[in-house]
Design brief:
Distance between the termini: 40 Å
Number of domains: 1
Radius of gyration: 16 Å
CATH topology: Spore Coat Polysaccharide Biosynthesis Protein SpsA, Chain A
Number of helices: 6
Strand order of the largest sheet: 5-4-1-6-8-7-9
Largest sheet: 7 strands, mixed
Order of helices and strands: EEEHEHEHEHEHEEH
CATH class: Alpha Beta
CATH architecture: Alpha-Beta Complex
């Protein structure tokens, strides 16, 4: 059983907006809704949870209105909140897919590809990385580069708060490259959509 946890508890300060980042609307739809729709279309995700914090109370309410289960995290940071989630008794030994709430191009097919690779690799953890060339090709600004790879916001771990043997999956896909951190990222997303319509 794969439990998807949407990480939606951050402050989103780089967006310079009063709106909570997961609820920021792009083309009339909150960012988090795009992620939920991708997870709902996955054939391998059985449960969807939304991890919020004191920084995202409106997102918690949105999840409740959508009949999604919410996990209230301490809101101390991405890594700390993830550790909090992994240590929850009801998630022990479950396969947990963590997904950033700001991946508007994510699809169920890509989610299933990542989960399939996780099962094949036989390791307890998997991090999805994107080659930095994808960013340059599409005029995107990577948030962090590590040995020519950029973290995608997709990870799979086992429900236990211990160090886990990790596989790196490098995916050269735009669906996991573009996350929305700044106003410039929204402009890039709109540009990509315009170009795909031509």
């Amino acid at each position: 059983m794969v439990v998807a946890v949407i990480m939606a508890g951050g402050k989103g300060t780089r967006l310079r907006s009063n709106q909570e980042k997961p609820l920021l609307k792009v083309r009339g739809q909150p960012l988090i809704e795009s992620v939920v729709n991708a997870l709902l279309s996955s054939k391998k995700v059985e449960t969807i949870l939304v991890a919020t914090s004191v920084h995202s109370p409106q997102t918690a309410q949105w999840a409740k209105n959508k009949k999604l289960t919410n996990i209230d995290t301490p809101g101390r940071g991405y890594v700390e909140d993830m550790a909090f989630i992994l240590s929850r008794p009801e998630l022990l030994d479950k396969i947990i897919l963590t997904v950033a709430a700001d991946l508007p191009l994510l699809t169920g097919e890509v989610v299933d590809e990542v989960i399939h690779h996780y099962h094949v690799c036989k390791k307890s953890a998997l991090s999805v990385m994107v080659p930095v060339e994808i960013f340059y090709k599409h005029c995107l600004q990577p948030s962090m580069v590590w040995e020519n790879l950029v973290p995608s916001g997709l990870n799979i771990l086992r429900g236990k708060n211990t160090e886990q043997d990790e596989e790196l999956l490098v995916l050269g896909k735009l669906e996991v490259a573009l996350n929305i951190n700044t106003p410039e990222d929204i402009i890039s997303l709109e540009r990509l959509w315009m170009n795909s319509c031509r």
